[in-house]
Design a protein that fits this description.
- It is a single chain.
- The chain is of the alpha/beta class.
- Helices cover 46% and strands 10% of the residues.
- It folds into 4 domains: 101 residues, Serine Threonine Protein Phosphatase 5, Tetratricopeptide repeat (Alpha Horseshoe), CATH 1.25.40; 66 residues, no CATH class; 159 residues, Rossmann fold; 170 residues, Rossmann fold (3-Layer(aba) Sandwich).
- It has 30 helices and 14 strands.
């Protein structure tokens, strides 16, 4: 729109005054002009003048008005307005301009930084994925750091791996990026890169650089770090919640009923998840005369469509997936839960932060995460004497609650004993001695590879059977074995298959070889269920002691070796003593329905004793303390499947 002649004259005058640095005069001229016309050009010049006079918030408003007038430069004006609002701390105003600028922000790292920061403050990260590449390509460090925060929890995400690699190559001395880079390299078993930075990693640890550990995800820390003292530092905040919160929570008014009300919190309440393969028989075995069970479920809808899950038999279900942490906590309080048990800890998509909202008089960690759950208001961690031995207490902020035989539940009714598969059907040599590992390939460390290579070197008529569906990881594993002098034909990979089919193929192996420092958990109990002996070295943290617990509970403690050297020696010795292997297999078959590992009813009674002991202390106003649950009298016969 053409300005009226007098308006045009005033604008020109204001523009000249601005160019000469006469900002006060220019402001007076523009105030006169606004009485005559209000257009984008005028508002934009007003914004520039206000900025020169130090009125940034007012300048932001002027730019916003310029953008709202439309025209070719409207997005530019809105972007300037958002940047100024953000700089002034006017988050709401900046956010109101963010959505129209989402497309522009995909190529503008400064805009992307503002939008991402604002949406992250409001826990709205779902729309921010497109900005990762833009931020990571920026030369500014704060942009790069924010790009790292947008990484998904899916370490199989190739875009995330490329971003982390680019960031790390730019600043290899950054311990945070080193941590993230090594996680991605371990996911594809890139042992060369892992070893390239092993010394740098060791230097960081030896220098007590807590920044590195505090930046690391606890889940991945336990995969390589066997030191419980360091495990506790991973992702730990200086003050995750007010120090008085636990005491305040425990002293809140609470109505205890005749029955103990147990709440289980998880997003794994669906039949095919590994946790439910272990847990469901215990849920259905709870004594309804003594316990009321409520499942606080945030399982994604797509998993609830699986037919025949039997969810209705696991307990009363309260859906909290669409509630904020505060509202989810209130939903749990509304149920008057006595003991809330978190089943996730530091695993993918966990909402363990709900427990920092004073949810129940007793709050417990169990099963999902093998270690201390840092940053979370918890009273107890449930384990046993193997995974939580005496001397480890100082490395946990939770008090120990130790079950007498094993911490891991199992479901004998829901875990079938399918017909076994022949070696010919799955491509295994008929006459070879078959070592096997079905653990996640990320658990295969350089140290584990060296041990396996030594075993294969000393057992010429043997092969190693690995479940590893990723071609890139397979290639790295094969190259590493070749570097150790092991021919690739001795390494046989298998894909993931349906659960029953997987169980049926397990007995085709002769001996299971555990990974370290992170053992198999559900995978170990699956092998023992199917009668396959599993060899493991004694561990130094929870995740490296799990198989020890399971082997004791099934009655074959001899398969726990003193160290890695003994692990190698025993693997070689069993290769030369097939009769001993057969003896172990028969013992596993005989013990399956007699020993504690697969006795879900016995396990449930021990777990209920633990809950009763926790509740008794809480009712009497006592602080959490070490609980060692006494064992029930031993069974004299087998239990029903």
């Amino acid at each position: 729109m053409e300005l009226p002649l007098n308006a045009h004259t005033i604008f020109s005058s204001a523009s000249r005054q601005y160019q000469k640095g006469q900002y006060t005069e220019a402001l007076d001229s523009l105030n006169q002009l606004l009485d005559l016309t209000r257009d984008a050009k005028t508002y934009a010049l007003l914004a520039k003048v206000l900025l020169k006079l130090g009125f940034r918030s007012d300048a932001a408003q002027a730019y916003q008005l310029a953008g709202e007038e439309g025209g070719l430069r409207s997005e530019h004006f809105l972007a300037e307005a958002m940047k100024l609002h953000f700089a002034c701390g006017n988050d709401d105003q900046a956010l109101s301009l963010g959505r129209p600028l989402l497309e522009q922000a995909k190529t503008d790292p400064e805009l992307a930084y503002i939008i991402v920061t604002l949406f992250l403050k409001r826990d709205q990260a779902d729309i921010l994925g497109p900005f990762k590449s833009t931020l990571s390509a920026s030369a500014r460090q704060e942009h790069q750091v924010l790009a790292a925060k947008l990484l998904t929890s899916d370490v199989g995400n190739n875009e995330d791996r490329e971003i982390v690699t680019n960031l790390f190559r730019r600043t290899p001395s950054n311990p945070v990026l080193l941590s993230a880079y090594l996680v991605f390299m371990q996911e594809v078993n890139n042992f060369n890169e892992i070893e390239n930075y092993a010394q740098a990693l060791e230097r960081v640890i030896q220098s007590n650089n807590s920044k590195f550990l505090r930046a690391e995800t606890p889940f991945y820390n336990i995969h390589w770090c066997r030191d419980e003292k360091l495990n506790r530092l991973a992702a730990a905040l200086d003050q995750p919640f007010p120090p008085g919160l636990p005491k305040e929570r425990r002293s809140m008014p609470h109505s205890w009923g005749k029955k103990i009300r147990i709440g289980y919190l998880s997003n794994d309440f669906w039949g095919l998840h590994a946790t439910m393969k272990l847990l469901r028989a215990v849920l259905t075995a709870h004594d309804p005369e003594k316990f009321e069970i409520v499942l606080f479920c945030y399982t994604p809808e797509k998993y609830l469509k699986v037919v025949g899950q039997g969810r209705e038999s696991w307990g009363r279900i309260v859906r909290v997936e669409h509630l904020s942490d505060e509202h989810a906590a209130q939903a749990i309080r509304d149920e008057q839960i006595d003991i809330l048990v978190d089943l996730k800890g530091h695993t993918m998509n966990s909402r363990v932060s709900i427990l920092n909202h004073k949810v129940a008089p007793v709050q417990v960690a169990w099963l999902g995460f093998p270690g201390t759950t840092v940053n979370t208001d918890l009273d107890y961690i449930i384990g046993d004497h193997y995974v939580l031995p005496d001397g480890s207490e100082e490395h946990y902020h939770e008090r120990f609650c130790r079950l007498p035989e094993t911490y891991q539940p199992n479901d004998p009714a829901g875990r079938p004993l399918p017909a076994t598969t022949s070696r010919a059907e799955i491509g295994l040599p008929e006459d070879a001695f078959v070592y096997a590992s079905f653990n996640a390939n990320r658990k295969i460390t350089v140290e584990t590879m060296k041990a396996w290579a030594e075993i294969l070197r000393r057992t010429p008529d043997s092969v190693l059977w690995l479940m590893c569906p990723k071609p890139e990881a397979q290639a790295h594993i094969l190259r590493r074995f070749q570097s150790y002098g092991i021919t690739t034909k001795r390494i046989i990979f298998c894909a993931k298959v349906d659960y029953e089919k997987h169980l049926g193929r397990i007995p085709a192996a002769d001996l299971g070889l555990d990974t370290f420092p992170c053992n198999g958990h559900t995978t170990t109990s699956e092998q023992l269920w199917m009668g396959l002996p599993v060899l493991t070295p004694k561990g130094t943290h929870f995740a490296s002691r799990v198989s020890e617990s399971l082997l004791h509970a099934i009655g074959v403690p001899e398969l726990v070796t003193a160290d890695i050297d003994a692990y190698i020696e025993q693997a070689v010795a069993l290769y030369g003593n097939r009769a001993k292997v057969a003896e172990y297999r028969q013992r596993l078959t005989d013990n399956r329905m007699q020993m504690p590992l697969f006795d879900s009813e016995r396990f449930c009674r021990h777990l209920e004793q633990a809950y009763e002991m926790m509740a008794e202390r809480a009712r009497n106003g006592l602080e959490p303390a070490l609980i060692d649950v006494p064992a029930l009298p031993a069974r004299t016969g087998s239990f029903a499947q």
